[in-house]
Specification:
Helices cover 31% and strands 26% of the residues. By secondary structure, the chain is α+β, with helices and mostly antiparallel strands.
Length: 449
Amino acid sequence: MCNESNNQTTSVYDVVIIGAGFTGLSVAYELTKQRKNLKIAIVEAQNDIGGLASAFDVGGNKLDRFYHHWFTNDEYVMELVSELGCLDKVKINPSNTGIFFANNFFKLSTPFDLLKFKPLNMINRIRLGLLALRARRVKNWHELETLSASEWLCSLGGKEVYKTVWEPLLRGKFGPYADDISAVWFWNKLKLRGGSRGKGGEERLAYFEGGFIALAKIMLEFIKSNNNSELILNSKIKKLTKKNDLWIIESDAPDKKLIAKHVVCTTALPLTANLIQHWAEPEYIEKLNKISYIGNTCLVLELDRSLSSLYWINVNDPTFPFVGVIEHTNFEGPENYQGKHIVYLSKYLPVSDELYKKNKDEFLEYSLPYIKRMFPDFDSSCIVKHHLWKEEWSQPIVVKKYSELIPEKHHPIGGLHLSSMAMIYPEDRGTNYAIREGRAMARELLELI
């Protein structure tokens, strides 16, 4: 490190990682594990690590801003937890899931529940059950790339099953983009959930004690065990420029200038495009901007009582604004949050939508009639606190032939590398695959350093 005449400090790193979510942390973790002598910086625009898995305080304990869990077949996160010696912090429980349809709740946790799903006649209930089995038999996902999710699901289970079960979920998740979503995206969801079941057919999910942020903090402790590593928070990168064999990394921190041999961008691809548009070829910028995203608003309620016995409620009523109502404390008990019952209400929507612009009080006021309709005994007096979290780059829009849209991980001029959740394919975004991709990127970097 050296001091410049204008009091700006300049640091030269082997690797600068932009973004302190699980991808960025996994890059740094693997680099640190393999090479203790590397000088690494993780730069994060927010005031804490975790990205979409960041957390906030509830009664002195940490709670995920956006609901999270793992599936029991998420091998990469389980491998990491094992390496860190934290398997005793993983809690695995059967989930208690259901569907809200036509003002009624229907439990759908096991195959037996499916046989009692009254919105479908018996033939269509059987079709619904067989659909998941047929989907899991698909071995070559490339065969699905030219099909939309709606086309594929109708071919497997029929139009009635699609209209009742799948279409409301697609529209709740992707809004105006629902008809464009690839069959590959839905296939992977069915495959993943089908592989996370117990002997009785019940879905089993995992949660890390203390929330996902607790795992992120443990990873950070390991990274910081390398005295050459540094975490820089509240620092938004503004521009990346290559000069000779080094990258100049300009941020909104006027007192600090970063220089690196390699830069790894883990942010949304359009954000990376903004950093390099002053020098990169137009065709490359166009490719980074080609993948669209949808935003998310997540209302989190702290209640003095439970809403229901269900953990996860898929909302299949098209007049209801939320794709899911997740009562977190029916999975991770209220005793972990000073007796408060935690409920998430999730809404995916374009960031241009007026609803996205509402503050937490306005959003709560908008939501209350719908909560009351779903739970007639609900009274707003049971709300202890409410929080609203928003994410502009929440979910990439996975369209047909999505593989053709994904940019190369390594830019041709050298030293610039991309590892974004939009590049996790055919799988969808998630902590498990963020860890996989981050560690894979680190191993590729070690061949270049």
